[in-house]
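User: C-alpha coordinates for this one?
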Amino acid sequence: MSNLIYNDVIATAFLTSALYFAVKFIKRRSMKDILFAATLLAVGNYFRSIGIIFLITMVFSLLFNIRAIGVKKALGALFITALLFNVPGWTQNAVLQSTNVVDEPINTNSAPVYMWLNMGVNLETFGFWDNWQSYTIYQQDANYNKAESTKLFKVEISNKLSEASLRGGSKMRTKRFLALIIAVLSCSMVLVSCEAITAQKILSTYSGSRANGGQGFTDGRAKDGGGSPGMNGGTRRNGSQGTDGGSGQSGR
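Assistant:
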Protein backbone atom coordinates (compact mmCIF):
# COMPACT_ATOMS: atom_id res chain seq x y z
CA MET A 1 0.00 0.00 0.00
CA SER A 2 1.32 3.42 -0.89
CA ASN A 3 2.35 5.59 2.05
CA LEU A 4 1.94 8.81 0.06
CA ILE A 5 -1.02 11.15 0.58
CA TYR A 6 -1.61 13.62 -2.21
CA ASN A 7 -2.40 17.18 -1.25
CA ASP A 8 -5.74 16.80 -3.05
CA VAL A 9 -7.10 14.96 -0.01
CA ILE A 10 -5.98 17.70 2.39
CA ALA A 11 -7.29 20.45 0.11
CA THR A 12 -10.66 18.72 -0.30
CA ALA A 13 -11.05 18.47 3.48
CA PHE A 14 -10.33 22.17 4.02
CA LEU A 15 -12.40 23.38 1.06
CA THR A 16 -15.42 21.25 2.00
CA SER A 17 -15.21 22.53 5.58
CA ALA A 18 -15.12 26.07 4.19
CA LEU A 19 -18.41 25.46 2.38
CA TYR A 20 -19.94 24.09 5.58
CA PHE A 21 -19.08 27.20 7.58
CA ALA A 22 -20.22 29.44 4.70
CA VAL A 23 -23.66 27.80 4.84
CA LYS A 24 -23.67 28.20 8.63
CA PHE A 25 -22.94 31.91 8.18
CA ILE A 26 -25.86 32.29 5.79
CA LYS A 27 -28.15 30.54 8.30
CA ARG A 28 -26.91 32.12 11.55
CA ARG A 29 -25.30 35.35 10.25
CA SER A 30 -22.43 35.04 12.72
CA MET A 31 -19.18 36.68 11.60
CA LYS A 32 -17.27 33.93 13.41
CA ASP A 33 -18.59 31.43 10.87
CA ILE A 34 -17.45 33.44 7.86
CA LEU A 35 -14.05 33.93 9.48
CA PHE A 36 -13.70 30.16 9.79
CA ALA A 37 -14.93 29.71 6.22
CA ALA A 38 -12.47 32.25 4.78
CA THR A 39 -9.55 30.77 6.74
CA LEU A 40 -10.33 27.20 5.68
CA LEU A 41 -10.78 28.35 2.08
CA ALA A 42 -7.39 30.06 2.07
CA VAL A 43 -5.62 27.04 3.56
CA GLY A 44 -7.34 24.65 1.15
CA ASN A 45 -6.37 26.82 -1.81
CA TYR A 46 -2.77 26.83 -0.56
CA PHE A 47 -2.62 23.02 -0.73
CA ARG A 48 -4.38 22.84 -4.11
CA SER A 49 -4.95 25.90 -6.27
CA ILE A 50 -8.56 25.13 -7.11
CA GLY A 51 -9.97 27.28 -4.33
CA ILE A 52 -11.13 29.85 -6.87
CA ILE A 53 -13.99 27.48 -7.76
CA PHE A 54 -15.13 27.38 -4.15
CA LEU A 55 -14.54 31.13 -3.79
CA ILE A 56 -16.88 31.82 -6.72
CA THR A 57 -19.46 29.48 -5.17
CA MET A 58 -19.28 31.29 -1.83
CA VAL A 59 -19.46 34.74 -3.44
CA PHE A 60 -22.59 33.86 -5.43
CA SER A 61 -24.19 32.25 -2.36
CA LEU A 62 -23.60 35.41 -0.33
CA LEU A 63 -24.96 37.63 -3.11
CA PHE A 64 -28.07 35.48 -3.57
CA ASN A 65 -28.80 35.70 0.18
CA ILE A 66 -27.79 39.33 0.67
CA ARG A 67 -31.27 40.36 1.81
CA ALA A 68 -31.48 37.65 4.46
CA ILE A 69 -27.94 38.28 5.66
CA GLY A 70 -28.01 42.06 5.47
CA VAL A 71 -26.02 44.31 3.15
CA LYS A 72 -23.38 45.30 5.71
CA LYS A 73 -22.71 41.76 6.89
CA ALA A 74 -22.68 40.39 3.34
CA LEU A 75 -20.17 43.01 2.18
CA GLY A 76 -18.08 42.42 5.30
CA ALA A 77 -18.10 38.67 4.60
CA LEU A 78 -17.02 39.23 1.00
CA PHE A 79 -14.21 41.53 2.13
CA ILE A 80 -12.91 39.04 4.71
CA THR A 81 -13.07 36.14 2.25
CA ALA A 82 -11.23 38.04 -0.49
CA LEU A 83 -8.65 39.43 1.94
CA LEU A 84 -7.69 36.07 3.43
CA PHE A 85 -7.77 34.11 0.17
CA ASN A 86 -4.15 34.80 -0.88
CA VAL A 87 -2.62 35.30 2.58
CA PRO A 88 -0.91 31.84 2.70
CA GLY A 89 0.70 32.42 -0.71
CA TRP A 90 1.85 35.92 0.20
CA THR A 91 3.27 34.63 3.50
CA GLN A 92 5.16 31.81 1.81
CA ASN A 93 6.58 34.19 -0.79
CA ALA A 94 7.72 36.68 1.86
CA VAL A 95 9.37 33.99 4.01
CA LEU A 96 11.20 32.37 1.09
CA GLN A 97 12.52 35.69 -0.19
CA SER A 98 13.53 36.94 3.26
CA THR A 99 15.53 33.75 3.91
CA ASN A 100 17.15 33.93 0.42
CA VAL A 101 15.68 30.60 -0.63
CA VAL A 102 14.43 32.29 -3.81
CA ASP A 103 15.50 35.57 -5.37
CA GLU A 104 12.22 36.31 -7.15
CA PRO A 105 8.50 35.89 -6.48
CA ILE A 106 7.47 32.25 -6.63
CA ASN A 107 4.83 32.95 -9.28
CA THR A 108 7.34 34.43 -11.75
CA ASN A 109 8.30 31.07 -13.25
CA SER A 110 5.56 28.84 -11.90
CA ALA A 111 3.83 26.40 -14.22
CA PRO A 112 1.55 28.38 -16.56
CA VAL A 113 -2.14 27.69 -16.92
CA TYR A 114 -1.48 26.56 -20.51
CA MET A 115 0.25 23.47 -19.10
CA TRP A 116 -3.00 22.32 -17.52
CA LEU A 117 -4.94 23.21 -20.67
CA ASN A 118 -2.51 21.16 -22.72
CA MET A 119 -3.08 18.21 -20.39
CA GLY A 120 -6.80 18.44 -20.98
CA VAL A 121 -6.57 18.60 -24.76
CA ASN A 122 -5.86 14.93 -25.37
CA LEU A 123 -7.90 12.08 -26.84
CA GLU A 124 -6.01 9.19 -25.26
CA THR A 125 -6.95 9.61 -21.61
CA PHE A 126 -9.99 10.94 -19.82
CA GLY A 127 -9.37 13.90 -17.56
CA PHE A 128 -6.31 16.09 -17.27
CA TRP A 129 -3.44 13.59 -17.03
CA ASP A 130 -1.27 13.03 -20.13
CA ASN A 131 1.46 10.77 -18.74
CA TRP A 132 4.05 13.48 -18.03
CA GLN A 133 4.00 14.98 -21.54
CA SER A 134 3.13 18.49 -20.36
CA TYR A 135 5.50 18.25 -17.39
CA THR A 136 8.29 17.28 -19.78
CA ILE A 137 7.69 20.39 -21.89
CA TYR A 138 7.77 22.65 -18.82
CA GLN A 139 10.71 21.02 -17.03
CA GLN A 140 13.00 19.88 -19.84
CA ASP A 141 12.12 21.77 -23.01
CA ALA A 142 11.52 25.15 -21.31
CA ASN A 143 13.83 24.58 -18.31
CA TYR A 144 11.15 25.87 -15.87
CA ASN A 145 10.82 29.15 -17.78
CA LYS A 146 7.21 30.29 -17.61
CA ALA A 147 7.26 32.57 -20.66
CA GLU A 148 9.09 30.05 -22.84
CA SER A 149 6.88 27.15 -21.78
CA THR A 150 3.77 29.23 -22.49
CA LYS A 151 4.86 29.61 -26.11
CA LEU A 152 5.53 25.89 -26.43
CA PHE A 153 2.19 24.96 -24.89
CA LYS A 154 0.30 27.30 -27.22
CA VAL A 155 1.94 25.64 -30.24
CA GLU A 156 1.22 22.18 -28.81
CA ILE A 157 -2.44 22.98 -28.17
CA SER A 158 -2.84 24.46 -31.64
CA ASN A 159 -1.33 21.35 -33.23
CA LYS A 160 -3.56 19.03 -31.24
CA LEU A 161 -6.71 20.93 -32.20
CA SER A 162 -5.78 21.10 -35.88
CA GLU A 163 -4.88 17.39 -36.05
CA ALA A 164 -7.98 16.21 -34.23
CA SER A 165 -10.57 14.68 -36.53
CA LEU A 166 -14.21 15.73 -36.40
CA ARG A 167 -15.09 12.59 -34.49
CA GLY A 168 -12.16 12.93 -32.15
CA GLY A 169 -12.90 16.59 -31.51
CA SER A 170 -16.52 15.84 -30.69
CA LYS A 171 -15.44 13.05 -28.37
CA MET A 172 -13.01 15.35 -26.60
CA ARG A 173 -15.61 18.09 -26.18
CA THR A 174 -18.11 15.54 -24.86
CA LYS A 175 -15.60 14.39 -22.24
CA ARG A 176 -14.88 17.94 -21.12
CA PHE A 177 -18.60 18.74 -20.97
CA LEU A 178 -19.29 15.64 -18.86
CA ALA A 179 -16.41 16.56 -16.54
CA LEU A 180 -17.87 20.06 -16.11
CA ILE A 181 -21.34 18.67 -15.38
CA ILE A 182 -19.90 16.26 -12.79
CA ALA A 183 -17.97 19.07 -11.11
CA VAL A 184 -21.06 21.32 -10.94
CA LEU A 185 -23.24 18.51 -9.59
CA SER A 186 -20.61 17.61 -6.98
CA CYS A 187 -20.44 21.20 -5.71
CA SER A 188 -24.25 21.36 -5.63
CA MET A 189 -24.46 18.13 -3.63
CA VAL A 190 -21.88 19.42 -1.14
CA LEU A 191 -23.79 22.67 -0.67
CA VAL A 192 -27.11 20.86 -0.21
CA SER A 193 -25.53 18.47 2.31
CA CYS A 194 -23.98 21.32 4.29
CA GLU A 195 -27.31 23.16 4.33
CA ALA A 196 -29.16 20.05 5.50
CA ILE A 197 -26.65 19.41 8.29
CA THR A 198 -26.85 23.02 9.47
CA ALA A 199 -30.67 23.03 9.39
CA GLN A 200 -30.80 19.76 11.36
CA LYS A 201 -28.43 21.14 13.98
CA ILE A 202 -30.49 24.32 14.39
CA LEU A 203 -33.69 22.26 14.70
CA SER A 204 -32.09 20.01 17.31
CA THR A 205 -30.97 23.04 19.31
CA TYR A 206 -34.51 24.47 19.22
CA SER A 207 -36.07 21.17 20.24
CA GLY A 208 -33.62 20.84 23.11
CA SER A 209 -34.49 24.29 24.42
CA ARG A 210 -38.21 23.40 24.45
CA ALA A 211 -37.57 20.11 26.27
CA ASN A 212 -35.59 21.95 28.95
CA GLY A 213 -38.35 24.36 29.80
CA GLY A 214 -38.20 26.83 26.93
CA GLN A 215 -41.37 28.23 25.43
CA GLY A 216 -42.91 26.73 22.34
CA PHE A 217 -44.72 28.33 19.46
CA THR A 218 -47.84 29.02 21.60
CA ASP A 219 -45.96 30.10 24.73
CA GLY A 220 -48.08 27.62 26.67
CA ARG A 221 -47.05 25.78 29.81
CA ALA A 222 -46.50 22.11 30.29
CA LYS A 223 -49.35 19.75 31.08
CA ASP A 224 -48.83 19.92 34.82
CA GLY A 225 -48.59 23.70 34.89
CA GLY A 226 -52.28 24.01 34.39
CA GLY A 227 -52.50 27.74 33.84
CA SER A 228 -52.59 28.28 30.11
CA PRO A 229 -55.94 28.93 28.44
CA GLY A 230 -57.67 26.12 26.63
CA MET A 231 -60.15 26.31 23.78
CA ASN A 232 -62.80 29.05 24.04
CA GLY A 233 -61.35 30.51 27.24
CA GLY A 234 -60.97 27.33 29.27
CA THR A 235 -57.74 26.09 30.77
CA ARG A 236 -56.03 22.75 30.34
CA ARG A 237 -56.73 19.51 32.21
CA ASN A 238 -55.16 20.45 35.56
CA GLY A 239 -56.41 24.03 35.56
CA SER A 240 -59.53 25.60 36.97
CA GLN A 241 -61.54 25.86 33.80
CA GLY A 242 -62.27 23.47 30.95
CA THR A 243 -63.46 24.08 27.45
CA ASP A 244 -66.24 26.68 27.03
CA GLY A 245 -65.55 28.05 30.51
CA GLY A 246 -66.30 24.82 32.33
CA SER A 247 -64.20 23.13 34.96
CA GLY A 248 -61.51 20.66 34.06
CA GLN A 249 -61.47 17.07 35.30
CA SER A 250 -59.07 17.66 38.18
CA GLY A 251 -59.85 21.33 38.77
CA ARG A 252 -63.05 20.88 40.69
